[in-house]
Amino acid sequence: MSSVLRIALQKNGRLSEDSYQLFKECGIRFDYGTGKLKSISSNFPAEFLFLRDDDIPGYVEDGVADLGIVGENVAVETGRPVTTIHKLGFSKCRLSIAVPRGVDWTGIQHLDGKNIATSYPNLLGKYLAEQGVQAEIHEISGSVEIAPSIGLAEAVCDIVSSGSTLLSNGLKEVETIFRSEAILIARPELDADKQSLVDKLLFRIKSVQAAKNNKYIVLNAPNHALDQITALLPGMKSPTVTPLATEGWSSVHSVLNENEFWENIEAIRAAGAEGILVIPIEKMIY
Ligand SMILES: Nc1ncnc2c1ncn2[C@@H]1O[C@H](COP(=O)(O)OP(=O)(O)OP(=O)(O)O)[C@@H](O)[C@H]1O
Ligand SMILES: O=P(O)(O)OC[C@H]1O[C@H](OP(=O)(O)OP(=O)(O)O)[C@H](O)[C@@H]1O
Ligand SMILES: [Mg+2]
């Protein structure tokens, strides 16, 4: 029988939508959200398992799944010997210590002898040990931010993104101990057939990510400024330059990285470019 990759995804939570969307953009179709906990792709040799995120590193270690998507925070917290094969750039968040807003925070030593509620006892324990702080870690599995207001702990250590959960629970963020994003993890030893499927999948994921980070640019440039403008638009190999019907002008086509976008566009306009079109790219194959 030919190989089928088993891929574990979070059933329902902060990782789910972006994980499903990533496979969709990679052209891999499967059913989800129907209540079924397993689904076979109709056009790629993969079977998807829908699980609680905390269980995913363990399933990948045990070989129940070959690949999984989890937050780096969960992968590190569980300490399972799985391989991180790619960072996915979504579900970005941080693990932070927070205390009631009225606390006069003077530094991490403030936590000496205190109780801290968290779902991340290993990450927190390691951080406190590094800082030389002796505190009591109180492990709870959810709704951590409620702990100070019900007298369970003097501080919390939990996931923060916008900060609105802290705010609405009267807490303030005082120390960030870990930064996280979604990652693709794999079983350390995959056979050659499965490894070649993983390579195919990674190729697609990288093409989708590259496309998201770049824009296709089309503009009109006066010929006297072509050298200056094309130097700002190196593209994948080099820009395409074709003459316009209007004498003395050319059309320039290229690709520009999102991070350099605004700065370069200003310089390109200043050099005399006109009619600049910025077009999203669907896939980008190097
Ligand atoms: N507010 C947030 N913004 C961005 N990413 C987040 C946020 N909260 C959590 N994450 C990331 O998404 C992962 C899953 O978060 P979620 O809250 O869905 O977990 P959960 O409640 O433990 O889910 P499950 O029911 O699967 O156990 C976290 O481990 C973290 O990496
Ligand atoms: O800084 P914010 O943008 O407010 O995000 C942080 C909150 O998001 C997560 O919980 P989630 O809403 O996923 O609910 P959960 O407790 O059920 O996991 C996390 O555990 C925090 O409580
Ligand atoms: Mg969970």
Automatic annotation (TrEMBL):
> What Gene Ontology cellular-component terms does the record carry?
cytoplasm
Q: Where is the Histidine biosynthesis HisG C-terminal domain?
A: 211-283
Cited InterPro entries:
ATP-PRT_HisG_long, ATP_PRibTrfase_cat, ATP_PRibTrfase_CS, ATP_PRibTrfase_HisG, HisG_C, N-reg_PII-like_a/b, N-reg_PII/ATP_PRibTrfase_C
In alphabetical order, the GO MF annotations are: ATP binding; ATP phosphoribosyltransferase activity; magnesium ion binding
**Pathway this chain belongs to:** Amino-acid biosynthesis; L-histidine biosynthesis; L-histidine from 5-phospho-alpha-D-ribose 1-diphosphate: step 1/9
Activity regulation: Feedback inhibited by histidine.
Broad class of enzyme this protein falls into: transferase
State the EC number(s): 2.4.2.17
User: What CDD domains does the entry give?
Assistant: PBP2_HisGL2
PROSITE patterns according to UniProt? ATP_P_PHORIBOSYLTR
Q: What cofactor(s) does the depicted protein rely on?
A: Mg(2+)
Q: Which GO terms describe its biological process?
A: L-histidine biosynthetic process
The keyword Cytoplasm appears for this protein: yes
The UniProt entry, under Pfam families, shows: HisG (PF01634), HisG_C (PF08029)
Q: Does the keyword Glycosyltransferase apply?
A: yes
Which part of the chain is the ATP phosphoribosyltransferase catalytic domain? Answer: 52-206
Q: Where is the signal peptide?
A: none
Into which family does the record put it? Belongs to the ATP phosphoribosyltransferase family. Long subfamily.
Function statement: Catalyzes the condensation of ATP and 5-phosphoribose 1-diphosphate to form N'-(5'-phosphoribosyl)-ATP (PR-ATP). Has a crucial role in the pathway because the rate of histidine biosynthesis seems to be controlled primarily by regulation of HisG enzymatic activity.
Q: Check the record and name the HAMAP family matching this protein.
A: HisG_Long
State the name under which the record lists this protein.
Answer: ATP phosphoribosyltransferase
Gene that this sequence comes from: hisG
